[in-house]
Amino acid sequence: MTKTVFIDGKKIEYEGNKTLLEIARENNIYIPSLCYHPKLGPASMCRVCVVEVEGMRGLQPSCATIPAEGAKVLTNTERVIEARKTVVNLLLSNGNHNCLSCEVNGDCELQDAAYHLGIEIPAFLIEQPEERDESGVFILRDPGKCIKCGRCIEGCNRLVVNEVLDFGYRGGEIKVICDNDIPMGESTCVQCGECVQLCPVGALIDKKAIGKARTWETHTVRTTCPYCGVGCQLELHMKEDQIVRVTGVEDAQPNQGHLCVKGRYGYDFIYSGDRLTTPLIKENGVFREASWNEALDLVAGKFKQIIQESGPDTLAGVSCARSSNEDSYNMQKLFRGVFGTNNIDHCART
Ligand code: SF4
Ligand code: SF4
How far, in Å, from the CA of 152 to the mean position of ligand 2? Predict the structure, then answer.
């Protein structure tokens, strides 16, 4: 059923049960938000996305408000802007938001909100930031930049279900902790990096990316993870021809942005000097370089010879766990349909 809402006087028709924030985003109306992430749904914690809804008392968090039919919504009134400014000012003041040297400068939702609201200098006193936790193998935690939005906690507990992160302590002492407030490197964290991908600021950082590039110097290349047949979709953040960091593609199957530690951080082998760059043929116990045509002709000739002399069941194929599903499918087709044997298996089967 088509529904109607009026945002800043503009009539918008939409389908389904959507929040005001979702409707606004679909119609290119900017409402800043920090704790909301499409994968996590409404959190209604940061109160940066507040709007005025005619007939409703007080300001409403747009990330958690489903509008009534024909609702009239204002996203930019003085009251709304003042409320947002107060929240963003408090967040900027209560931490070490040194944008100039921050790794996510240019890719930070708090910075975007401050820019949108015209905040140049935080209005309140800056507290002494907490020390950074560098104990994780791949992840650096900087509590001084944390805005306590809870996105990392939701992701760790509800999406990847590793149940490491939580809010600890109370009141002004509240902070994100690993297990019972121990360093990340000593906790049960598996370094999957889901929390890093969800963090809207620079409080969780990929260590391998530090100092490699400013965000605006990178471009992204979409590819499929080389590690297993699941086929997770990756975005490689590249500076020239070097990978700076890897993220999961948020709205793509099969992984919906999630990655394991290998897919996100295990890409160094690409630059290994030990990688083979040409086929090798072994002669008299010694490898020599060969062309692809020569190597493929040799292998095809040997297969034919074995089948003619001893039958197809003397051949067996083992496909690689790093192949895509499509490559593994082609491999079994080759063995079953062309060679005529069912001797085909996969190296990660057991
Ligand atoms: S890296 Fe993964 S397991 Fe570790 S805290 Fe982040 S989301 Fe949880
Ligand atoms: S570490 Fe990042 S995602 Fe987690 S609560 Fe802090 S700002 Fe939010």
Answer: 5
Which of 42, 23, 29, 260 shows the shortest CA–CA distance to 149?
A: 42
Instruction: Please tell me which residue, 229 or 304, carries the higher pLDDT value.
Output: 304
Topology of the domain covering 2-76? Ubiquitin-like (UB roll) (3.10.20)
pLDDT at 126 > cutoff 70? no
Domain ranges of the chain: 2-76, 311-350
Nearest-atom index, ligand 1, CA of 162: 3
Mutate to test the pocket of ligand 1, among 37, 156, 265 (most ligand atoms within 8 A of CB): 156
Q: Which 8-state DSSP code applies to residue 67?
A: P
The rounded distance, in Å, linking the Cα atoms of 120 and 111 is 10
Please tell me the residue having the least CA distance from ligand 2 atom 8.
149
Among the bound ligands, name the one nearest to the CA of residue 130: 2
The arithmetic mean of pLDDT across residues 192-203, rounded, is: 97
For residues 302 and 179, what is the distance between their CA atoms, to the nearest angstrom? 57
Q: Which residue(s) pair with 349 in the sheet?
A: none
DSSP annotation of 338 reads I
**pLDDT over 70 at 129, yes or no:** no
